[in-house]
Amino acid sequence: MRSIPEIGTTFPIIGNAHQLKTKSGEFFNQIVELTTEYYTLPLFKIWIGTIPFVILFHHETVESILNNPIHMEKAYAYTFLHPWLGTGLLTSTGKKWRQRRKMLTPTFHFSILTDFMEVMNEQSEILVEKLQNKAGKEVFDCYPYVTLCALDIICETAMGKKIYAQSNYESEYVKCVYKMSDIVSRRQRLPWYWPDLLYYSIGDGKEHDKMLKVLHSFTQKVIKERAENISNSESDSETDLKKRRAFLDMLLKTTDEEGNSMSHQDIQEEVDTFMFEGHDTTAASMNWILHLVGSHPEVQRKVHQELDEVFGTSDRPVNTEDLKKMRYLECVIKEGLRLYPSVPFFGRTICQDTTIRGFKVLKGSNIIIVTYALHRDPRYFPEPEEFKPERFLPQNSIGRPAYAYVPFSAGLRNCIGQRFALMEEKVVLSSVFRRFTVEACQKHEELHPVGELILRPEKGIWIKLEMRTK
């Protein structure tokens, strides 16, 4: 049995932390560079504090973990999300996770997701109106526009609450969502902030709790209001509830096999999780795709051609039949997620001693799966840095290992909302490309991807728009 190769020099208490970059963008680039340097190895190990982190970035090693029901527990770093998200679907484990996943799965059935298309179309139309003011004018950063659109969509579909983020980007709730993500990410990579005593005395502890109060107060208020509306048939008719049904409404009515309903605390965990996972991820993906398509005129021509075939000259909203016909746009989205996966790495805890490709990995070790590097394996993605949507045409996907491409994770703990995300991206992106021609105004080397909880461009996505003539 071989020992796992270790990177650099380790010291007591801090491990390799002294060698790791502290800025998020630099830390992410350092990990990616290590996966390139040690590509011929099946895995390697770094120590952050007293915890060993085993780095995986080949499909063979990734599958051995994600496809194993024993290693279901999330990595230690996820505990820093507990104050915000509790132990909802993202962070829970064991019996609670299995029970919660079973209860929530029906709420993501395709027939229910189609009810949300009205919201997606409405918010996409608002986005298009905002972008029309930029068309034919100066270069601008589209990142905040697309992100606020995604936030409006998730707020209304998850909570049934309009927050008008696209019109009120100074919203306190909007600011706190972003600030909280940054605070958590920073703590995860700096082990001297892991103990609460140090975190609250010299770290971001006080700011963390300030953000937490705003976020929880908002969702608590919304849950209380929706619960009262559902129980009061006079204030909300059954027809109105069906028309604007939200995930929250379904959670308030959900019961397990024994007839037990979810408490308001249980529901808040899941609503906060939807808000965290369900807007920044899709927003990042759509922004990267706008850059990629705007950098490849031939791809954009094919996107326009497909959309013209589906919609003609009509400005009608997107429907479910349209979604099925957007085959090339789906390839574009998948290739965008290959190059710039919204979650650039994620982690698990090894729950019993195991062997990976002849290396012994001890119970308690943390596994970090580097999606960004996994998706650039030249064995399955020749010319891995090139943007080629045709890779995902059915005939070109034959023989590609399932675990070589995991933008939504894989195995039992795959992302429950991946169909929702793909639907949203098709609706929003098709709305934009039906109206505009996009020109990217940054070179590849100017993007500087920052890998925190979400993979973002350091300085936004700068584009120029022109109205399409039909």
Q: Strand order, biggest sheet? A: 1-2-7-4
- What is the correct CATH architecture? Orthogonal Bundle
Distance between the termini: 66 Å
Strand content: 5-15%
Number of domains: 1
CATH topology: Cytochrome p450
Low-confidence stretches: 233-239
The largest sheet is:
4 strands, mixed
Number of strands: 11
Give the H and E element order.
Answer: HEEHHHHHEHHHHHHHHHHEEEEHHEEEE
Number of helices, counting only DSSP H or I runs of 4 residues or more:
18
Rg for CA atoms: 22 Å
Function: Catalyzes the formation of aromatic C18 estrogens from C19 androgens.
Pfam families: p450
Cofactor: heme
GO molecular function: aromatase activity; heme binding; iron ion binding
Topology diagram in text:
Blueprint: H1 24-37, E1 44-48, E2 51-56, H2 59-66, H3 82-85, H4 94-104, H5 110-113, H6 117-132, E3 140-141, H7 143-159, H8 172-188, H9 196-202, H10 205-231, H11 238-243, H12 247-253, H13 264-295, H14 297-311, H15 320-325, H16 327-339, E4 346-349, E5 354-356, E6 359-361, E7 366-369, H17 371-374, H18 418-435, E8 436-440, E9 449-451, E10 455-457, E11 462-467
Parallel strand pairs: 2-7
Antiparallel strand pairs: 1-2, 3-11, 4-7, 5-6, 8-11, 9-10
Helix pairs in contact: 6-7, 6-18, 7-13, 8-10, 10-13, 13-16, 13-18, 14-16
